[in-house]
Amino acid sequence: xxxxxxxxxxxxxxxxxxxxxxSATAGNFLEQPVxxxxxxxxxxxHTLEEMLSHLPSSITxxxxxxxxxxxxxxxxxxxxxxxxxxxxxxxxxxDPCSLDSNATAxxxxxxxxxxxxxxxxxxxxxxxxxxxxxSDLLATGQLVLPGxxxxxxxxxxxxxxxxxxxxxxxxLNARSSTKTHITVADYNAQVLALATxxxxxxxxxxxxxxxxPWPPEGDLDISPxxxxxxxxxxxxxxxxLSVISGAWGSAFVSLLSHTSTDGxxxxxxxxxxxxxxxxxxxxxxxxxxxxxxxxxTQTVMALLEANSKRxxxxxxxxxxxxxxxxxVGGGVDEFLxxxxxxxxxxxxxxxxxxxxxxxNGVGRCILEVGVRPVG
Length: 375
Description:
This protein has helices at 48-52, 83-92, 103-109, 125-140, 161-172, 189-206, 224-236, 250-257, 290-306, 332-342, and strands at residues 19-20, 44-46, 58-66, 76-81, 149-155, 180-186, 217-221, 239-245, 277-284, 314-322, 345-351, 364-370. It has 375 residues and is α/β, with parallel strands linked by helices. Strand 5 (149-155), helix 5 (161-172) and strand 6 form a beta-alpha-beta unit. The longest helix has 18 residues, at 189-206. It is globular. It starts with 18 loop residues before the first strand and ends in a 5-residue tail after the last strand.
């Protein structure tokens, strides 16, 4: 099994010395039972074309800078579809995005409804932390894209700022013969169609020379020609985008592992990447609920194990979270406790007390998570 992939910063802005020792017991991470409750949405694979078909003729956006803590590195600027624009689309349509009408209640009220709507329309604080951290990895050369075949999986993607950071970097930098396979996953298909994919489309378009200078805010006209060219341009650049909705668990992992590089289900069980591959799993604000921490942790560990079986492969997860979710019950300690049961390591690579803000408010951190080698 490949050694853990480690991002080793030397800056005092990052806490590299805090490591959480956990059990080295490896095995089938999905064997343990998940808490019972109301029925969960079954995972479902969506095509990019299906997601793009739900876009209106125009979307309103605001561009947000994702600054790097590194000197001499320009901030990435990510356009994000405005929440009021999503609400306006939903309210104007008789059958708003028939993919997942249950999420509409959460969109209109901003409330998280467990196993119904998990908050994906909102950009949460820790997703910004993770986007900034990824920006720093790119700025310092700790993460090189394209360098080797890369698989990026964002769990609980929502507005997908971490993935958008990587996509913009890919769009702005020279290509090589390597492939990049991006999977964005969220519990709600409606979030994916109305927030995640529009934000990735905006990010990609904003990096194209024909759209320069890019206005910091405004409306982007959406036409069939644009959405078609988006899919074509991604493919030509060696970047493949797949979309999965539904709950974490064994069915989710199975669906993802049977997805080929064109983002479609592969009945012949061909792996997504044949050459040495870096798998980067991203997640932010996904451990707030005790009822879903175990399923999330099992899913992350199963994906890490599945993508690090060959000595030439590397796999790591970056999980951004608040240390404690007051009034809810989840948090970093609860996550690490489950991690300890099923084998792995967790290492704090960034802490809000060392960065901008001086640690005011609820503590936040980013954990590097991997499979601990046996022996």
